[in-house]
Amino acid sequence: MAGKTISEKMFQRASNSDCSAGELVMAEIDRAMIHDITAPLAVQGFTEIMKGAGLPTRVWDPSKIVMIFDHQVPADSVTAAENQATLRNFAKKQGILNYDVCEGICHQVMPEKGHVIPGNLVVGADSHTCAYGALGAFSCGIGSTDMAAVLASGKLWFRVPETLRIEVTGKLPHRVSAKDVILRTIGNVGSDGATYMACEFAGPTVSGMEVPARMTMCNMAIEMGGKSGIVEPDRKTGEYLEESGQKIEIDSELKSDESAEFEEIVEIDVEDLPPQVARPHRVDDVVDVSVVAGTSIDQVFIGSCTNGRFTDISAAADIVDGEKIADGVRMLVIPASRTEYLKCLRQGYIEILVEAGALFEAPCCGPCMGGSFGLVGAGEVSLSTSNRNFQGRQGSPQASVYLCSPETAAASALYGEITDPRDV
Amino acid sequence: MIMAAGNSITGNMWKFGNDVNTDEIIAGKYLVLNTPEELAKHVFEGVMPQFPTQVKEGDVVIAGRNFGCGSSREHAPLALKGAGVKIVIAESFARIFYRNAINIGLSLVECPGCGEIEEGHGIRVDISGGIVEDLVTKKKYPATRQPKFIREIILAGGLVPYMQEKLRAEGISDNGKQE
Questions:
Q1: What pLDDT was estimated at residue B4?
Q2: In DSSP terms, which residues pair with A403 in a beta bridge?
Q3: ipTM score for this prediction
Q4: Which of A56, A208, A395, B80 has the greatest count of CB atoms below 10 A from its CB?
Q5: Distance from CA of B98 to the nearest CA of A (A)
Q6: Which chain B residue is nearest to residue A222, measuring alpha carbons?
Q7: Across chain A, what does the average pLDDT equal?
Q8: Are strands A264-269 and A163-169 parallel, antiparallel or unpaired?
């Protein structure tokens, strides 16, 4: 009999059934996350469900729900302010933990504050919820009405996914990082190559990565159509969890069996991988940095749930290292959380970057979604460490967004054009 | 002209290619809005400026692979529904968009091969029979049959009415057990 993948095992536990990939199950949710953009429709749907069912409007279990404001933060319009006020009231009435505008981006705050445990089933009303799979949980994005059903019942139906296993081998070259690996992977797999599948990142390169780098990888599983991103939990997972005050015994069975069946295995060798860039307007249009080197840029954004951690800003600060950014370039640096911000502050990175001419902002999503500040206008070029470069993503539909690593972003800011970070 | 079995709709067909993403459907700056009416004013605005002003009740969107890829924003199918789009026919759908559309009652027809149907061709959509027919080429495209569970949500009119019935029934059975 075939063994099980880590995802199948997690669904077996969550649905209390002996399920396999392809089957539909009703699963119990361990944690649900909602933020300022998706919560209004979720709360509306939840209220309609409960009233229509003749039940009191009380969520299934407030201790398993987390609310975070990060997309329009601090409130950048009266509408945003009023949406947040309504959500604040809802959270208070229901007894739901609400980090409000104070802690940072949802996908950084959730794992950082101990809301993600290996083996758990976590859902979030945001597509990049797949990021928490870096801690060995099954974590996926859902829409507001699915979330309304979760708020009402604590359960949701799922199709147990097949698994796309990505085996990464090779030692990462100097100034080449997890973002380059995931961009190359997306370039190879394609925008719908992983549709409906769990993307399991494995191999010695991944086991050698710290949790923040694993988060960068898992974060972008959705850009290949993946339902989730996952890295088997190990000693490094345990160490990360300890930092957030969780002493967890890692279950040695929480991994794909030797005889597990994978839908597909993709091999990525990073031994000689050059820095990668996704060209406008597709995330899977990924090329070596040399193909786009020399492209003039107007704005550089280092941040987002993909690359807004201390390790990312550290890599950028190391490259900036006392130099000034090029004339005509705006550089925005936004740590993904208050915790990461304080680490940067204590290490002196804010000074390095501000002296260089960068704008260093309080933790939030910022320019990533194009709904807040730091937008780009027609004809402008943005080089960004975020996760999407669709047409219009960061402002004008006539602007261009390139995606890259923090290293490439920092090097490029110094020269005013897309630059290979290995050359500086 | 679009015709549906048992129902004649004179709607326009709006043709799209592969990988139509949620940022194109409704831009991030509009996600502070939450009603179908407000969202409908901006649907496809950045990539097809004529769409929001010209789309009519009963229109059909037909597209290639991976329709709705990108964000989990439910505002995307909501904007389409608010604009009067009744059906989205595509070769394949992105996962979260698919669930969101079913949940809010926007009809989706997954039809491998339909991406080749040319702009301006009249089509006949037989939802119950699961066939999309190109009235010019006479080619028929069978739709992928949805799982029974999904069909139950669709029949209920979306996830909210489905959950209302489900929880009401659970409440009644719990009361029954108590008595």
A1: 54
A2: A278, A384
A3: 0.95
A4: B80
A5: 10
A6: B70
A7: 97
A8: parallel
Residue A80 φ then ψ, to 5°: -60, -45
Identify the residue among A23, A83, A127 best suited for mutation to test binding to B, counting B beta carbons within 10 A and taking the highest: A127
Q: How far is A44 from chain B (nearest CA, A)?
A: 10
pLDDT of residue B178: 41
The sign of the dihedral angle between the CA atoms of A239, A240, A242, A246 is negative
pLDDT at A2: 83
Q: Is the pLDDT of residue B176 over 80?
A: no
Which B residues in the span 131-170 are in contact with A, Cβ-Cβ below 8 Å? Answer: 147, 149, 158-161, 163-168
Q: What's the confidence (pLDDT) of residue B127?
A: 78
8 Å CB contact of A79 and B32: yes
For B163, the closest chain A residue by CA position comes to A49
Residues of B in contact with A153 (CB under 8 A): 163, 167
Q: Note whether A173 contacts B: Cβ–Cβ < 8 A.
A: no
pLDDT tens, residue by residue, B59-88: 999 999 999 999 999 999 999 999 999 899
Neighbours of A295 (CB within 10 A): 16
